[in-house]
Design a protein that fits this description.
Elements: E1 3-9, H1 19-31, E2 35-40, H2 45-49, E3 57-59, H3 65-74, E4 77-80, E5 98-104, E6 115-116, E7 131-135, E8 137-139, H4 145-152, E9 163-164, E10 166-168, H5 169-182, E11 186-190, E12 196-197, H6 198-211, H7 222-227, H8 229-236, E13 240-241, H9 244-249, H10 259-280
Parallel strand pairs: 1-2, 1-4, 2-3, 4-5, 5-7, 6-13, 7-11, 8-10
Antiparallel strand pairs: 9-12
Helix pairs in contact: 1-5, 4-6, 6-10
Length: 281
């Protein structure tokens, strides 16, 4: 049985926990019968194991250097899901196994809507691992366009119309585990098959909710949405992220090849709870 250390590092999400991507990797690793460890600073066991098989996840104290070194020695794979740092944690300097790092397709900047491959940008100082996953916009059962539309409303005017790429967090996790299994190295873009504008995605999310009888409020926050830092970046950085290498080397098939299948799955996972919350409000 292989061992995976997921998310090793300090100052990780300020105590939020392993994060949705880290949890997705943990769950996918459990499906493949990996032995899973987690090492997070300032995080409780409940944070780490939420939504996972708690009996199969061992929480390792980040501040215990002896424990960290011991678990690294026993581990065949280390995946770092914290925001990239310019230098690796000292505990990793002697590590000889497979080492992966989660980065972002934001490193490509603006390409005026053109397709970008892994060669479109060299590795940055923050991308020091032998294997780097540049993730497109991540979404899943706890964060998606459905959640945003339910919370902030939708009027069809505030979302960017430029194409953007995204990937369901479970497919991202599957790609990472597949890379671990084959010992893949280098840079991989993780994205689904269909870049689409936020305008299209949000409209589809609103339509899915309304088909289930969930009223979508009219957005009243258009000014703030259009002037936020993230909104300005979305409007500036226009690109379509190619997943050709991922598809060729890691995943022949995606569970959610486009946002349509992904949002439908998110809806089915959450629909009962959302309707219950509406009934109780």
């Amino acid at each position: 049985m292989s061992a995976v250390v997921v998310s090793i590092g300090d100052a990780f999400c300020r105590g939020i926990g392993v994060g949705t991507l880290g949890k997705a990797v943990v769950k996918e690793a459990q499906r493949k019968e990996f032995l899973v460890f987690d090492s997070i600073a300032g995080t409780t066991r409940r944070d780490i194991t939420n939504d996972c098989n708690q009996n199969d996840v061992e929480l390792v104290s980040f501040y215990n250097d002896t424990s960290i070194a011991s678990h690294l020695f026993d581990s065949t794979h280390v995946l770092i899901t914290i925001p990239p740092q310019e230098e690796p944690h000292p505990a990793l300097l002697e590590y000889k196994g497979w080492l992966g790092l989660v980065s972002t397709t934001g490193v490509y900047g603006n390409h005026d809507g053109a397709w970008v491959t892994e060669d479109a940008a060299p590795t940055t100082l923050n991308e020091w691992a032998s294997t780097v996953f540049r993730c497109a916009g991540l979404y899943g059962n706890t964060r998606s366009a459905l959640d945003t539309v339910r919370r902030m409303g939708h009027d069809g005017t505030r979302e960017a119309t430029s194409p953007t790429s995204r990937i369901h967090e479970r497919d991202a996790a599957r790609a990472m585990l597949a890379c671990m299994a084959r010992g893949g190295t280098g840079v991989y873009n993780l994205a689904d098959d269909e870049p689409a504008s936020r305008k299209c995605v949000f409209a589809h999310a609103a339509r899915l909710l309304e088909e289930q009888g969930i009223v979508v409020p009219i957005s009243t926050n258009t000014a703030a949405a259009s002037t936020s830092k993230r909104a300005r970046r979305r409007g500036r950085d226009k690109k379509r992220v190619s997943n050709a290498r991922m598809r060729r080397e890691l995943l022949a098939d995606l569970l959610y090849p486009t946002y349509k299948e992904g949002l439908q799955a998110v809806l089915q996972e959450n629909l009962d709870e959302w309707k219950k919350n509406i009934a109780n409000s």
